[in-house]
Amino acid sequence: MTSLIFKDVTMSYPIYNAHSQSLRNQLVRVSTGGRIGGSRGEVVTVTALDNISFELKSGDAVGLIGHNGAGKSTLLRTMAGIYPASSGEVIRVGSVATVFELGAGMDPELSGYENIMRMLLLLGHSVASAKSKIPEIEEFCELGDFLVLPVRTYSSGMTMRLMFAVATSMRPEILLIDEMFGTGDAAFQEKAEKRMHDWIAGSDIFVFASHDRSLIKRLCNRIFRLEHGKIYEDDIATI
């Protein structure tokens, strides 16, 4: 059975040469709002996730909320295995697909078609399987002839369409999305939301970070709130 379990997970970033630049500039690079700890010498530690534990199982659709820099993106990347935990244990059972920052995993010099193949191969498809997915992705993203052009020529909305179409074409057991519905036209956002409803109805675990609480309420059945590296589960009926 698909599951995603965090046991006392902490994610800390050491920042070196703290005296050579402003601390503010270094924290911008880390882009988290966790606790800042000092140490002797020139090392500053930012704790983005602070000893958090939870268990997700099949059927869980989780909305992540919190102010900018609260740790939502760090949590999603730790869920995906992109960031290793500094301490604690992450137990992940099931295939994972992600839709994170625009352009992640894409080569801007390659065409849309070439990037579709590239991303599907990275997700574990064979060449034949990846090719069989292209018509569905073409139809959903509605980019038409732009798919033959380099991705660097795309707007942010076009890039989001392509990434979302690829990520949701394979129906992974665990899907992680980081604030992607704010980009693109209203018609595509409605189309993407419908696909998410269909995906959730027949899938396992879905985690979605967003500032749009009404969208989270429509898509999710659980809600986690992040504050300064700590995690709290709220009653979704109250948001």
UniProtKB/TrEMBL annotation:
GO cellular component: membrane
CDD domains: ABC_KpsT_Wzt
GO molecular-function term, one example from the UniProt record: ATP hydrolysis activity
Keywords, in A-Z order: ATP-binding, Hydrolase, Nucleotide-binding, Transport
Keyword ATP-binding attached: yes
Family annotation (PROSITE patterns): ABC_TRANSPORTER_2
Ranges of residues in domain ABC transporter: 28-239
Matches recorded under InterPro entries: AAA+_ATPase, ABC_transporter-like_ATP-bd, ABC_transpr_TagH-like, Bact_Polysacc_Export_ATP-bd, P-loop_NTPase
EC number: 3.6.3.40
Sequence similarity: Belongs to the ABC transporter superfamily.
Protein name (record): ABC transporter
Source organism: Yersinia mollaretii
